[in-house]
Amino acid sequence: MRIVNILFSPTGGTRKAAEKLTETWGTETETMDLMTYGADFSEERFTEEDVVVFAVPSFGGRVPSAAAERFSRIKGNGAACILLCVYGNRAYDDTLAEMEDLAKDCGFQVTAAVAAIAEHSIAHQYAAGRPDETDTENLHAFGEQIWQKIQRGERALTETIPGNRPYREAGGGGMIPRPSDTCVKCGICAAKCPVHAIDPEDPADIQEEVCISCMGCTAVCPHGARALHPDAVAEVSEKLKEVCSVRKECELYL
Ligand SMILES: Cc1cc2nc3c(=O)[nH]c(=O)nc-3n(C[C@H](O)[C@H](O)[C@H](O)COP(=O)(O)O)c2cc1C
């Protein structure tokens, strides 16, 4: 039996939540990184014995397009799939519903779904420091319930995952991080960009129509030299103020 975390986590919040969900299982967990540009995911095949955690952040209430496209190539072959959607305390809208459809289309058996909260990767003051102690307790408890279900040989999801079909329109792009004059052109941002939107020779040269605004480049820059324009962040922060001010908690669907 393989246990595999299949992750798309540009700034690390999704990865943290996935680790917390699975760390009580006491088993060795592999990681498959959907951030890797050019990887051939069509070669990835599972069996009925295997358990995967498919974890993505919610972008505009949807699955990030690059993550959806890459995941859709994997062959589930009846493996159990735990969906984990991580969001920045606004809402996850149709993300889990879209993940459920993607997983079924690849031949996975959806066994459970979790929504968790992590620091907002654009407006960092929202859900700052999350997943925190309460989230960790909740995710550990959810992980244990999921593991017990798997051990009992139960694979089917009995609860209904929230979300609309057709999904809400994808959007939210257009927020392009740019380098400041502390950029040393090391090229790390370009190498790590999941869609190769940044020119490795000149990190100020960005294919704006390719960038998915994932904020990965801001997180990997060792010099803290990449950021959104502060006016853009201030505008988003103001828009999110009301909806993000009430703390949301992690949810489990079994
Ligand atoms: C382009 C973009 C769109 C986002 N849309 C939403 C959203 O619709 N709802 C929400 O609550 N958080 C939203 N967020 C916040 C992320 O879902 C959240 O910060 C998540 O933890 C990021 O995952 P990561 O740390 O693995 O990159 C968005 C972030 C980005 C960059």
Order of helices and strands: EHEEHEHEHEHHEHE
How many domains in all? 2
Structural class of the secondary structure composition?
alpha/beta
How does CATH name the architecture of the largest domain? 3-Layer(aba) Sandwich
By CATH, the topology of the largest domain is Rossmann fold
* Number of E strands: 8
- What characteristic shape results from the CA principal axes? globular
Biggest sheet: strands, sense, closure? 6 strands, mixed
The averaged pLDDT comes out at: 97
Could you say which small molecules are bound to this protein? flavin mononucleotide
Taking all Cα atoms into account, the compactness measure Rg is 18 Å
Percentage of β-strand residues: 15-25%
InterPro entries: 4Fe4S_Fe-S-bd, 4Fe4S_Fe_S_CS, Flavodoxin/NO_synth, Flavoprotein-like_sf
Keywords: Iron, Iron-sulfur, Metal-binding
Domain 4Fe-4S ferredoxin-type: 173-203, 206-231
Domain Flavodoxin-like: 3-147
In short:
This protein is α/β, with parallel strands linked by helices. It has seven helices and eight strands.
Key features of this structure:
single chain, 254 residues, alpha/beta, Rossmann fold, Alpha-Beta Plaits, 2 domains, 6-stranded mixed sheet, two-stranded antiparallel ribbon, 7 helices, 8 strands, 28% helix, 16% strand, globular, binds flavin mononucleotide, metal-binding, 4Fe-4S binding protein, 4Fe4S_Fe-S-bd, iron-sulfur
